[in-house]
Write a structure and sequence with these properties.
The protein is α/β, with parallel strands linked by helices. The chain is built from eleven helices and eight strands. It has helices at residues 62-68, 91-103, 120-128, 160-166, 168-172, 185-194, 213-227, 248-262, 282-292, 298-312, 331-337; strands spanning 21-27, 73-80, 108-111, 133-136, 175-178, 200-202, 232-236, 267-269. Helix 7 runs parallel beside helix 8. The two termini are 30 Å apart. Mean pLDDT is 94; it is low at 328-338.
């Protein structure tokens, strides 16, 4: 029996002229009128990595995402937890499930659950009851700079209670979205090595904030350390900087280096919208990343923009073939048929 054709989040068939077909492996939605997000409402984050973020303090709902993504064929999305109030960690998942029922996306949810709190097991079990939940993003305690690190402190990746909670991911078949500055990647590699059956995906290209030669060298060394763990994948996303505009050549260097370190088979595109919209519009972001990979063969581009995210987040397998290049037979195969 034939399947219905795949449509984009706009409800249109794939094939928009000039569009990149993609799965967006990381975006956010929020409804500030009905739900509570302290960082967007009455408890501003003083050290936000992009500086002033007042422009984000408005509702961002499916129609807003559709408008931003209008020039591209987004066939599925993954919603990553958006700092919903932590005294109701499951509330965001329930809301997103209703959003999916009404709008058809997001198609997977990365929910939140603390690993080191007394109710960690209960919250994790409640999150896994929702069919769209594929993984957890639980940010460990991190330092503002490499010289301020306090290994072993409560909530860090060396905290025994944190590690006890982390171990539950494997039992529930969940992945972990890892979001830390690059100077914590060696610690994260120790976690990945200790739990080789937990799929992990590093968010936002490891945050290469320091674009000096020395800073990039340190970022590369840290990325190489975590890339040696085969269970760790990479979201090629969020190249924005606090004190600079979005720049193609600088960001191209980041994208190419990151993919070279991890291999394109473990990399996936992610928009981080609407947050990335503080520095770049959706079309410029997608079109620029596509240009950065213009010399990559079609099959690998398809893995990067579609198939890798489908596999990692266990989306509908049929999506992996959408937009895939038509394979050609080798001479040997053709001869065998003659």
């Amino acid at each position: 029996m034939s399947r219905d054709p795949v449509h984009t989040v706009h409800g249109a068939p794939v094939g928009t002229p000039g569009a990149v077909t993609l799965v967006d492996a990381h975006h956010h939605l929020w409804d500030l009128r009905r739900n509570r997000y302290p960082w967007l409402q009455d408890h501003p984050e003083p050290n936000f990595f992009l500086g002033d973020y007042d422009a984000l303090k408005h509702d961002y709902l499916p129609d807003d995402y559709r408008r931003d993504a209008a020039r591209h064929d987004v066939i599925a999305t993954v919603h990553c937890e958006a700092e919903w109030t932590r005294d109701d960690q499951v509330g965001e998942t329930a809301w997103l499930t209703r959003v999916h029922a009404e709008h058809g996306f997001p198609n997977a949810i990365v929910a939140h659950a603390w690993f080191h709190t007394p109710n960690a097991q209960e919250v994790l079990e409640r999150q896994t009851a929702f069919p769209l939940v594929r993984g957890i993003r639980s940010k460990p305690v991190t330092a503002a700079s490499p010289d301020a690190m306090t290994p072993g402190a409560p909530g860090t990746m060396q905290d025994p209670r944190w590690l006890e909670g982390f171990a539950r991911l494997e039992r529930h078949g969940l992945s972990w979205d890892l979001r830390v500055p690059y100077w914590h990647l060696r610690e994260a590699a120790e976690v990945a090595t200790a739990f080789p059956r937990v799929p992990i995906v590093l968010n936002h290209t490891g945050f290469p904030w320091d674009r000096s030669d020395a800073g990039l060298a340190a970022w590369r060394v840290a990325m190489e350390a975590i890339a040696r763990c085969p269970n760790v994948h990479l979201k090629v996303s969020e190249f924005g900087l606090k004190d600079r505009p979005w720049a193609f050549e600088s960001n191209r260097r980041i994208v190419r280096d990151a993919i070279a370190i991890f291999g394109i088979g473990r990399c996936m595109f992610a928009s981080n919208f609407p947050v990335a919209g503080l520095r770049v519009d959706f079309d410029t972001l997608v079109s620029s990343v596509s240009r950065m990979l213009e010399d990559v063969d079609a099959a690998d581009r398809h893995r990067f923009f579609v198939a890798n995210a489908v596999a990692f987040y266990r989306l509908d397998p049929a999506l992996a073939g959408v937009g895939a290049p038509v394979s050609t037979s080798t001479g040997r195969e053709a001869a065998a048929r003659r």
